[in-house]
Amino acid sequence: MAAEPAEVRTYGNWRRPMSPGLGQLGMIGTGALMAGLIVVVLTTAFVGLMAGAVVAVVLGAALSTLVIRDPHGRTLLQRAAVRIAWTRSRSRRAHLYRSGPLGQVPWGTFALPGVAARSSLSEHRDSYDRPFALVHLPGVNHYTVVFATDPDGSSLVDASQVDLWVAHWGQWLGDLGDEPGMVGASVTVETAPDSGARLQREVFGRMDDQAPVIARAMLEEVVQSYPAGSATVKAWIALTFSGAGQTEGRRRSTDEVATDLAARIAGLGQRLQATGAGAARPVDAQQLCEVIRIAYDPPAARLIDMSYSDKDVPALSWDDVGPTAHQEGWGEYRHDGALSVSWSMTMPPRSAVQSSVLEKLLAPHRAIARKRVTLVFRTMDSAQAANRVESDKNAADFRATSQRRPSARAMREQKCAAANARDEADGAGLVNFGMIVTATVAAAADLPQAVTAIDDLSATARIRLRRVYGSQASAFAACLPLGIVLPHHLKVPSAVREAL
Protein backbone atom coordinates (compact mmCIF):
# COMPACT_ATOMS: atom_id res chain seq x y z
CA MET A 1 0.00 0.00 0.00
CA ALA A 2 1.23 3.48 -0.84
CA ALA A 3 2.01 5.68 2.11
CA GLU A 4 -0.26 8.67 2.57
CA PRO A 5 1.48 12.00 1.96
CA ALA A 6 2.27 13.87 5.14
CA GLU A 7 0.13 16.91 5.79
CA VAL A 8 2.06 20.18 5.48
CA ARG A 9 1.40 22.28 8.55
CA THR A 10 0.91 26.01 8.02
CA TYR A 11 0.72 28.97 10.41
CA GLY A 12 -1.01 32.32 10.26
CA ASN A 13 -3.89 34.43 11.61
CA TRP A 14 -1.60 37.23 12.79
CA ARG A 15 -3.30 40.58 13.12
CA ARG A 16 -2.63 44.03 14.45
CA PRO A 17 -4.58 45.22 17.53
CA MET A 18 -7.56 47.35 16.59
CA SER A 19 -9.35 50.22 18.26
CA PRO A 20 -13.13 50.66 17.82
CA GLY A 21 -13.98 53.54 15.52
CA LEU A 22 -15.56 54.66 12.27
CA GLY A 23 -13.75 53.71 9.09
CA GLN A 24 -10.01 54.26 9.42
CA LEU A 25 -10.39 56.27 12.64
CA GLY A 26 -9.72 54.86 16.07
CA MET A 27 -11.48 55.66 19.31
CA ILE A 28 -9.79 59.04 19.77
CA GLY A 29 -10.23 59.95 16.11
CA THR A 30 -13.90 59.02 16.21
CA GLY A 31 -14.38 61.08 19.37
CA ALA A 32 -12.69 64.04 17.68
CA LEU A 33 -15.00 63.61 14.67
CA MET A 34 -18.13 63.63 16.84
CA ALA A 35 -16.95 66.65 18.81
CA GLY A 36 -16.05 68.46 15.58
CA LEU A 37 -19.48 67.82 14.08
CA ILE A 38 -21.09 69.32 17.17
CA VAL A 39 -18.85 72.39 16.83
CA VAL A 40 -19.79 72.70 13.13
CA VAL A 41 -23.52 72.55 13.95
CA LEU A 42 -23.23 75.13 16.74
CA THR A 43 -21.10 77.44 14.60
CA THR A 44 -23.58 77.25 11.74
CA ALA A 45 -26.52 77.95 14.07
CA PHE A 46 -25.04 80.89 15.98
CA VAL A 47 -22.53 82.44 13.56
CA GLY A 48 -23.58 81.55 10.06
CA LEU A 49 -23.34 79.09 7.22
CA MET A 50 -20.03 80.45 5.93
CA ALA A 51 -18.34 80.14 9.33
CA GLY A 52 -19.70 76.62 9.71
CA ALA A 53 -18.28 75.67 6.32
CA VAL A 54 -14.86 77.02 7.29
CA VAL A 55 -14.91 75.01 10.52
CA ALA A 56 -15.96 71.90 8.57
CA VAL A 57 -13.05 72.34 6.15
CA VAL A 58 -10.59 72.74 9.02
CA LEU A 59 -12.06 69.66 10.72
CA GLY A 60 -11.78 67.63 7.51
CA ALA A 61 -8.16 68.69 7.01
CA ALA A 62 -7.29 67.76 10.59
CA LEU A 63 -8.97 64.36 10.37
CA SER A 64 -7.36 63.64 7.02
CA THR A 65 -4.03 63.40 8.83
CA LEU A 66 -5.48 60.41 10.70
CA VAL A 67 -7.21 58.78 7.71
CA ILE A 68 -4.68 59.02 4.88
CA ARG A 69 -2.12 56.24 5.28
CA ASP A 70 0.90 55.10 3.35
CA PRO A 71 1.47 51.46 2.27
CA HIS A 72 2.97 50.74 5.69
CA GLY A 73 -0.12 51.92 7.58
CA ARG A 74 1.43 55.15 8.89
CA THR A 75 -0.77 58.23 8.95
CA LEU A 76 0.18 61.72 7.84
CA LEU A 77 0.24 62.79 11.49
CA GLN A 78 2.77 60.11 12.39
CA ARG A 79 5.01 60.96 9.46
CA ALA A 80 4.86 64.67 10.25
CA ALA A 81 5.66 64.01 13.91
CA VAL A 82 8.73 61.96 12.95
CA ARG A 83 9.95 64.66 10.59
CA ILE A 84 9.51 67.39 13.22
CA ALA A 85 11.31 65.30 15.85
CA TRP A 86 14.18 64.64 13.43
CA THR A 87 14.48 68.34 12.60
CA ARG A 88 14.67 69.23 16.29
CA SER A 89 17.25 66.50 16.87
CA ARG A 90 19.49 67.84 14.10
CA SER A 91 19.13 71.41 15.32
CA ARG A 92 20.37 70.31 18.76
CA ARG A 93 23.09 68.18 17.08
CA ALA A 94 21.78 65.18 19.00
CA HIS A 95 22.43 62.98 15.97
CA LEU A 96 26.19 63.26 16.56
CA TYR A 97 28.09 61.33 19.22
CA ARG A 98 31.75 61.54 20.20
CA SER A 99 33.03 59.50 23.13
CA GLY A 100 36.31 58.66 24.78
CA PRO A 101 38.86 60.89 26.53
CA LEU A 102 38.87 63.35 23.60
CA GLY A 103 35.14 63.19 22.97
CA GLN A 104 32.22 65.21 24.23
CA VAL A 105 31.04 62.67 26.81
CA PRO A 106 31.61 64.26 30.25
CA TRP A 107 32.84 61.04 31.87
CA GLY A 108 35.41 60.31 29.13
CA THR A 109 34.46 56.67 28.44
CA PHE A 110 33.15 54.78 25.40
CA ALA A 111 29.66 54.42 26.81
CA LEU A 112 26.72 53.29 24.71
CA PRO A 113 24.72 56.09 23.05
CA GLY A 114 21.01 56.70 22.71
CA VAL A 115 18.43 54.62 24.53
CA ALA A 116 21.16 52.48 26.17
CA ALA A 117 23.23 55.43 27.37
CA ARG A 118 22.35 55.00 31.05
CA SER A 119 22.54 51.21 31.04
CA SER A 120 24.77 49.32 33.45
CA LEU A 121 26.11 45.76 33.50
CA SER A 122 26.69 43.41 36.41
CA GLU A 123 27.54 39.72 36.67
CA HIS A 124 25.96 37.17 39.02
CA ARG A 125 25.69 33.39 39.52
CA ASP A 126 22.64 31.23 38.84
CA SER A 127 21.53 28.10 40.70
CA TYR A 128 24.00 26.00 38.65
CA ASP A 129 26.85 28.35 39.63
CA ARG A 130 27.09 29.66 36.07
CA PRO A 131 27.92 33.36 35.58
CA PHE A 132 25.27 35.44 33.84
CA ALA A 133 25.22 39.08 32.79
CA LEU A 134 22.44 41.37 33.95
CA VAL A 135 21.78 44.58 31.98
CA HIS A 136 19.92 47.34 33.82
CA LEU A 137 18.10 50.21 32.11
CA PRO A 138 17.31 52.61 34.98
CA GLY A 139 15.11 54.89 32.89
CA VAL A 140 12.40 52.23 32.56
CA ASN A 141 13.66 50.00 35.42
CA HIS A 142 14.17 46.95 33.22
CA TYR A 143 16.62 44.09 33.74
CA THR A 144 17.72 41.81 30.90
CA VAL A 145 19.24 38.33 30.90
CA VAL A 146 20.76 37.02 27.64
CA PHE A 147 21.04 33.37 26.55
CA ALA A 148 23.40 32.12 23.85
CA THR A 149 21.98 29.27 21.78
CA ASP A 150 23.16 26.91 19.06
CA PRO A 151 20.09 26.25 16.86
CA ASP A 152 19.94 22.76 15.42
CA GLY A 153 18.70 23.85 12.00
CA SER A 154 16.17 22.08 9.80
CA SER A 155 18.57 20.37 7.38
CA LEU A 156 18.03 16.59 7.21
CA VAL A 157 15.31 16.86 9.87
CA ASP A 158 11.90 15.26 9.49
CA ALA A 159 8.94 17.57 9.04
CA SER A 160 7.28 16.07 12.10
CA GLN A 161 10.27 17.07 14.25
CA VAL A 162 10.18 20.61 12.89
CA ASP A 163 6.45 20.82 13.67
CA LEU A 164 7.20 19.62 17.19
CA TRP A 165 9.86 22.31 17.62
CA VAL A 166 7.43 24.99 16.46
CA ALA A 167 4.77 23.71 18.85
CA HIS A 168 7.20 23.82 21.78
CA TRP A 169 8.32 27.30 20.74
CA GLY A 170 4.74 28.52 20.74
CA GLN A 171 4.20 26.95 24.14
CA TRP A 172 7.38 28.58 25.46
CA LEU A 173 6.25 32.00 24.24
CA GLY A 174 2.79 31.51 25.73
CA ASP A 175 4.29 30.55 29.10
CA LEU A 176 6.29 33.78 29.23
CA GLY A 177 3.10 35.66 30.03
CA ASP A 178 2.87 33.77 33.34
CA GLU A 179 6.47 34.55 34.34
CA PRO A 180 6.44 37.08 37.21
CA GLY A 181 7.75 40.45 36.13
CA MET A 182 8.26 39.47 32.49
CA VAL A 183 8.11 42.50 30.18
CA GLY A 184 9.35 41.19 26.85
CA ALA A 185 11.65 38.86 25.00
CA SER A 186 13.72 39.02 21.83
CA VAL A 187 15.46 36.55 19.55
CA THR A 188 18.48 37.81 17.61
CA VAL A 189 20.09 35.86 14.76
CA GLU A 190 23.32 37.35 13.45
CA THR A 191 25.29 36.31 10.37
CA ALA A 192 28.83 37.60 9.85
CA PRO A 193 32.01 36.65 7.96
CA ASP A 194 34.17 34.02 9.61
CA SER A 195 37.69 35.23 10.34
CA GLY A 196 39.03 31.68 10.56
CA ALA A 197 40.68 32.27 13.94
CA ARG A 198 38.40 29.78 15.70
CA LEU A 199 39.17 27.05 13.16
CA GLN A 200 42.88 27.77 13.49
CA ARG A 201 42.62 27.58 17.25
CA GLU A 202 40.82 24.23 17.16
CA VAL A 203 43.08 22.61 14.57
CA PHE A 204 46.45 23.75 15.86
CA GLY A 205 45.40 23.18 19.46
CA ARG A 206 44.67 19.50 18.75
CA MET A 207 47.46 18.76 16.26
CA ASP A 208 49.95 16.13 17.37
CA ASP A 209 53.59 17.07 17.16
CA GLN A 210 54.38 13.55 15.87
CA ALA A 211 51.82 13.72 13.06
CA PRO A 212 53.03 12.89 9.50
CA VAL A 213 54.21 15.77 7.37
CA ILE A 214 51.55 15.24 4.70
CA ALA A 215 48.81 15.27 7.32
CA ARG A 216 50.11 18.47 8.85
CA ALA A 217 50.36 20.10 5.41
CA MET A 218 46.79 19.12 4.57
CA LEU A 219 45.44 20.57 7.83
CA GLU A 220 47.40 23.78 7.35
CA GLU A 221 45.94 24.13 3.86
CA VAL A 222 42.44 23.59 5.23
CA VAL A 223 42.98 26.29 7.85
CA GLN A 224 44.12 28.74 5.17
CA SER A 225 41.47 28.02 2.53
CA TYR A 226 38.32 26.98 4.40
CA PRO A 227 37.41 30.35 6.02
CA ALA A 228 37.35 32.12 2.63
CA GLY A 229 33.75 33.01 1.91
CA SER A 230 32.35 31.23 4.95
CA ALA A 231 30.06 32.80 7.53
CA THR A 232 29.17 32.34 11.15
CA VAL A 233 25.60 32.21 12.48
CA LYS A 234 24.98 33.16 16.10
CA ALA A 235 21.73 33.38 18.02
CA TRP A 236 20.81 35.02 21.30
CA ILE A 237 17.61 35.18 23.32
CA ALA A 238 17.14 38.17 25.63
CA LEU A 239 14.54 38.13 28.41
CA THR A 240 13.53 41.45 29.97
CA PHE A 241 12.03 41.71 33.45
CA SER A 242 10.63 44.62 35.42
CA GLY A 243 12.51 45.80 38.48
CA ALA A 244 9.33 46.62 40.38
CA GLY A 245 8.21 44.32 43.18
CA GLN A 246 5.26 42.06 42.49
CA THR A 247 3.36 42.73 45.72
CA GLU A 248 4.55 45.92 47.34
CA GLY A 249 5.37 47.62 44.01
CA ARG A 250 8.59 49.20 45.30
CA ARG A 251 11.71 49.52 43.18
CA ARG A 252 13.99 46.55 43.82
CA SER A 253 17.77 46.75 43.85
CA THR A 254 19.98 44.98 41.33
CA ASP A 255 21.03 42.36 43.89
CA GLU A 256 17.41 41.56 44.73
CA VAL A 257 16.51 41.14 41.06
CA ALA A 258 19.60 39.00 40.45
CA THR A 259 18.74 36.74 43.39
CA ASP A 260 15.23 36.28 42.03
CA LEU A 261 16.39 35.54 38.47
CA ALA A 262 19.22 33.22 39.55
CA ALA A 263 16.69 30.58 40.56
CA ARG A 264 14.65 30.91 37.34
CA ILE A 265 17.33 31.08 34.64
CA ALA A 266 18.01 27.35 34.66
CA GLY A 267 14.37 26.44 34.08
CA LEU A 268 13.92 28.97 31.27
CA GLY A 269 17.04 27.69 29.52
CA GLN A 270 16.08 24.02 29.83
CA ARG A 271 12.65 24.62 28.29
CA LEU A 272 14.35 26.27 25.31
CA GLN A 273 16.06 23.02 24.32
CA ALA A 274 12.75 21.50 23.24
CA THR A 275 12.22 24.34 20.75
CA GLY A 276 15.21 23.42 18.57
CA ALA A 277 17.36 26.19 20.02
CA GLY A 278 19.95 23.69 21.19
CA ALA A 279 21.82 24.09 24.45
CA ALA A 280 20.85 27.48 25.88
CA ARG A 281 23.39 28.92 28.30
CA PRO A 282 23.44 32.32 29.99
CA VAL A 283 25.89 34.86 28.59
CA ASP A 284 28.42 36.25 31.04
CA ALA A 285 29.59 39.86 31.16
CA GLN A 286 32.70 39.32 29.04
CA GLN A 287 30.79 37.63 26.23
CA LEU A 288 28.08 40.28 26.17
CA CYS A 289 30.67 43.06 26.06
CA GLU A 290 32.30 41.37 23.06
CA VAL A 291 28.98 41.03 21.23
CA ILE A 292 28.05 44.70 21.67
CA ARG A 293 31.57 45.91 20.90
CA ILE A 294 31.71 43.96 17.64
CA ALA A 295 28.26 45.25 16.64
CA TYR A 296 29.40 48.89 16.85
CA ASP A 297 32.92 48.21 15.55
CA PRO A 298 32.84 45.15 13.21
CA PRO A 299 36.63 45.16 12.49
CA ALA A 300 37.16 44.42 16.19
CA ALA A 301 35.80 40.88 15.63
CA ARG A 302 39.01 39.70 14.00
CA LEU A 303 41.15 41.25 16.74
CA ILE A 304 39.11 39.52 19.44
CA ASP A 305 39.34 36.17 17.63
CA MET A 306 43.09 36.55 17.23
CA SER A 307 43.37 37.42 20.90
CA TYR A 308 41.62 34.19 21.86
CA SER A 309 43.88 32.28 19.46
CA ASP A 310 46.85 33.60 21.41
CA LYS A 311 45.12 32.44 24.62
CA ASP A 312 44.73 36.02 25.76
CA VAL A 313 41.23 37.07 26.84
CA PRO A 314 40.61 40.71 25.85
CA ALA A 315 39.72 42.81 28.88
CA LEU A 316 36.47 44.64 28.13
CA SER A 317 34.15 46.52 30.44
CA TRP A 318 30.74 48.05 29.82
CA ASP A 319 32.38 51.47 29.42
CA ASP A 320 34.41 50.16 26.45
CA VAL A 321 31.69 48.68 24.22
CA GLY A 322 30.22 51.85 22.76
CA PRO A 323 31.33 53.49 19.52
CA THR A 324 34.06 56.11 19.42
CA ALA A 325 31.85 58.19 17.14
CA HIS A 326 28.55 57.85 15.39
CA GLN A 327 26.49 59.98 13.06
CA GLU A 328 22.81 59.23 12.63
CA GLY A 329 21.30 60.06 9.27
CA TRP A 330 17.71 60.17 8.12
CA GLY A 331 17.92 56.69 6.64
CA GLU A 332 21.33 55.29 7.67
CA TYR A 333 23.58 55.06 10.70
CA ARG A 334 27.37 55.48 10.59
CA HIS A 335 29.27 54.06 13.56
CA ASP A 336 33.04 53.75 13.84
CA GLY A 337 34.23 51.81 10.78
CA ALA A 338 30.89 50.67 9.40
CA LEU A 339 27.57 51.86 7.98
CA SER A 340 24.24 50.29 8.95
CA VAL A 341 20.60 50.51 7.91
CA SER A 342 17.70 49.20 10.00
CA TRP A 343 14.18 48.19 9.00
CA SER A 344 11.09 47.38 11.04
CA MET A 345 8.26 45.07 10.13
CA THR A 346 5.02 46.87 9.37
CA MET A 347 2.94 43.91 8.21
CA PRO A 348 3.26 40.19 9.02
CA PRO A 349 2.38 37.53 6.45
CA ARG A 350 -1.28 37.95 5.53
CA SER A 351 -1.66 34.37 4.35
CA ALA A 352 -0.79 31.05 5.91
CA VAL A 353 2.93 30.24 5.75
CA GLN A 354 5.15 27.27 6.52
CA SER A 355 7.72 27.07 9.30
CA SER A 356 10.58 27.80 6.85
CA VAL A 357 9.22 31.20 5.80
CA LEU A 358 12.14 33.11 7.44
CA GLU A 359 14.87 30.74 6.28
CA LYS A 360 16.26 32.93 3.48
CA LEU A 361 16.00 36.10 5.55
CA LEU A 362 18.01 34.52 8.38
CA ALA A 363 20.64 32.89 6.15
CA PRO A 364 23.94 34.65 5.28
CA HIS A 365 23.92 36.82 2.17
CA ARG A 366 26.93 37.64 0.01
CA ALA A 367 25.88 41.30 -0.41
CA ILE A 368 25.64 41.98 3.33
CA ALA A 369 28.76 41.87 5.48
CA ARG A 370 26.90 41.57 8.79
CA LYS A 371 23.18 41.06 9.23
CA ARG A 372 20.99 40.86 12.33
CA VAL A 373 17.35 39.82 12.42
CA THR A 374 15.62 40.35 15.77
CA LEU A 375 12.14 39.14 16.63
CA VAL A 376 10.76 41.15 19.55
CA PHE A 377 7.92 39.93 21.75
CA ARG A 378 5.82 41.73 24.35
CA THR A 379 4.21 39.28 26.69
CA MET A 380 0.75 39.44 28.26
CA ASP A 381 -0.55 37.62 31.28
CA SER A 382 -3.80 35.67 31.07
CA ALA A 383 -5.92 38.53 32.43
CA GLN A 384 -4.56 41.07 29.95
CA ALA A 385 -4.84 38.58 27.08
CA ALA A 386 -8.51 37.89 27.82
CA ASN A 387 -9.36 41.60 27.93
CA ARG A 388 -7.38 42.31 24.77
CA VAL A 389 -8.92 39.60 22.61
CA GLU A 390 -12.45 40.53 23.75
CA SER A 391 -11.80 44.20 23.05
CA ASP A 392 -10.30 43.32 19.68
CA LYS A 393 -13.26 41.12 18.82
CA ASN A 394 -15.73 43.86 19.76
CA ALA A 395 -13.80 46.39 17.67
CA ALA A 396 -13.79 44.07 14.65
CA ASP A 397 -17.53 43.39 15.07
CA PHE A 398 -18.21 47.13 15.29
CA ARG A 399 -16.26 47.88 12.13
CA ALA A 400 -18.03 45.11 10.22
CA THR A 401 -21.55 45.96 11.40
CA SER A 402 -21.21 49.76 11.21
CA GLN A 403 -20.97 49.57 7.41
CA ARG A 404 -23.99 48.90 5.26
CA ARG A 405 -21.91 46.75 2.94
CA PRO A 406 -18.79 45.68 4.86
CA SER A 407 -15.65 45.14 2.85
CA ALA A 408 -13.99 41.77 2.45
CA ARG A 409 -11.11 42.93 4.65
CA ALA A 410 -13.48 43.98 7.45
CA MET A 411 -15.19 40.60 7.32
CA ARG A 412 -11.85 38.80 7.38
CA GLU A 413 -10.74 40.87 10.36
CA GLN A 414 -13.94 39.92 12.16
CA LYS A 415 -13.35 36.23 11.45
CA CYS A 416 -9.70 36.37 12.61
CA ALA A 417 -10.61 38.25 15.79
CA ALA A 418 -13.23 35.63 16.63
CA ALA A 419 -10.69 32.85 16.05
CA ASN A 420 -8.16 34.54 18.33
CA ALA A 421 -10.74 34.96 21.07
CA ARG A 422 -11.73 31.30 20.77
CA ASP A 423 -8.08 30.13 20.93
CA GLU A 424 -7.38 32.30 23.97
CA ALA A 425 -10.44 30.91 25.72
CA ASP A 426 -9.05 27.41 25.07
CA GLY A 427 -5.82 28.33 26.90
CA ALA A 428 -3.55 29.73 24.18
CA GLY A 429 -1.24 32.61 25.06
CA LEU A 430 -1.27 36.04 23.45
CA VAL A 431 1.94 37.82 22.44
CA ASN A 432 2.58 41.06 20.59
CA PHE A 433 5.49 40.64 18.21
CA GLY A 434 7.53 42.60 15.73
CA MET A 435 10.76 42.38 13.77
CA ILE A 436 13.82 44.57 13.30
CA VAL A 437 16.42 43.90 10.59
CA THR A 438 19.85 45.56 10.50
CA ALA A 439 22.30 45.32 7.62
CA THR A 440 25.90 46.49 8.16
CA VAL A 441 28.46 47.12 5.43
CA ALA A 442 32.05 48.35 5.52
CA ALA A 443 31.77 51.05 2.84
CA ALA A 444 29.07 53.38 1.57
CA ALA A 445 29.47 51.94 -1.95
CA ASP A 446 28.18 48.58 -0.69
CA LEU A 447 25.05 50.04 0.90
CA PRO A 448 22.77 50.05 -2.21
CA GLN A 449 23.38 46.34 -2.78
CA ALA A 450 22.62 45.57 0.87
CA VAL A 451 19.37 47.56 0.75
CA THR A 452 18.29 45.76 -2.41
CA ALA A 453 19.13 42.41 -0.85
CA ILE A 454 16.99 43.11 2.23
CA ASP A 455 14.08 44.20 0.02
CA ASP A 456 14.31 40.93 -1.90
CA LEU A 457 14.63 38.82 1.26
CA SER A 458 11.61 40.46 2.86
CA ALA A 459 9.53 39.41 -0.13
CA THR A 460 10.59 35.79 0.32
CA ALA A 461 9.64 36.03 4.00
CA ARG A 462 6.13 37.31 3.08
CA ILE A 463 6.55 40.35 5.32
CA ARG A 464 6.64 44.09 4.68
CA LEU A 465 9.65 46.00 5.98
CA ARG A 466 9.98 49.75 6.29
CA ARG A 467 13.24 51.62 6.76
CA VAL A 468 13.22 53.29 10.17
CA TYR A 469 13.61 56.87 9.01
CA GLY A 470 14.69 59.33 11.66
CA SER A 471 15.35 56.67 14.32
CA GLN A 472 18.20 54.60 12.95
CA ALA A 473 20.31 54.75 16.13
CA SER A 474 17.43 53.55 18.33
CA ALA A 475 16.51 50.77 15.91
CA PHE A 476 20.16 49.65 15.76
CA ALA A 477 20.30 49.41 19.57
CA ALA A 478 16.94 47.61 19.74
CA CYS A 479 18.22 45.03 17.26
CA LEU A 480 21.04 44.07 19.64
CA PRO A 481 20.55 41.46 22.40
CA LEU A 482 20.07 44.14 25.06
CA GLY A 483 16.38 43.56 25.78
CA ILE A 484 15.32 47.10 24.84
CA VAL A 485 11.50 47.22 24.70
CA LEU A 486 10.94 50.24 22.45
CA PRO A 487 7.27 50.98 23.38
CA HIS A 488 8.41 51.71 26.95
CA HIS A 489 10.81 54.39 25.66
CA LEU A 490 8.23 56.33 23.62
CA LYS A 491 6.91 59.70 24.73
CA VAL A 492 3.44 58.88 23.39
CA PRO A 493 2.14 55.59 24.88
CA SER A 494 1.28 52.76 22.51
CA ALA A 495 -2.34 52.74 23.69
CA VAL A 496 -2.77 56.34 22.54
CA ARG A 497 -1.15 55.58 19.18
CA GLU A 498 -3.49 52.64 18.57
CA ALA A 499 -6.55 54.70 19.55
CA LEU A 500 -5.80 57.38 16.95
Terminal Cα separation, in Å? Answer: 60 Å
What is the alpha-carbon Rg in Å?
Answer: 26 Å
Oligomer: single chain
State mean pLDDT (0 to 100 scale).
86
Low-pLDDT stretches: none
Please characterize this protein's 3D structure.
- It is a single chain.
- This protein is α+β, with helices and mostly antiparallel strands and 500 residues long.
- It has a domain at 96-194 and 229-380 and 429-499.
- 41% of the residues lie in helices and 18% in strands.
- It has 16 helices and 13 strands.
- Strands 1, 2, 3, 4, 5, 6, 7, 8, 9, 10, 11, 12 and 13 form a 13-stranded antiparallel β-sheet that branches.
- Strand 9 and strand 10 form a beta hairpin.
Features of the shown structure:
500 residues; alpha+beta; 16 helices; 41% helix
Short description:
This protein has 500 residues and is of the alpha+beta class. The chain has helices at 27-46, 49-67, 76-91, 159-176, 197-206, 213-225, 254-262, 265-272, 285-296, 300-309, 359-362, 382-401, 408-425, 447-460, 472-478, 494-499, and strands spanning 96-98, 120-125, 131-137, 142-149, 182-193, 231-242, 281-282, 325-328, 333-335, 338-347, 370-379, 431-441, 464-467. The protein has a domain at 96-194 and 229-380 and 429-499.
How do the helices and strands line up, and which of them pair or pack?
Elements: H1 27-46, H2 49-67, H3 76-91, E1 96-98, E2 120-125, E3 131-137, E4 142-149, H4 159-176, E5 182-193, H5 197-206, H6 213-225, E6 231-242, H7 254-262, H8 265-272, E7 281-282, H9 285-296, H10 300-309, E8 325-328, E9 333-335, E10 338-347, H11 359-362, E11 370-379, H12 382-401, H13 408-425, E12 431-441, H14 447-460, E13 464-467, H15 472-478, H16 494-499
Antiparallel strand pairs: 1-8, 2-3, 3-4, 4-6, 4-7, 5-6, 5-11, 8-9, 9-10, 10-12, 10-13, 11-12
Helix pairs in contact: 1-2, 5-10, 12-13
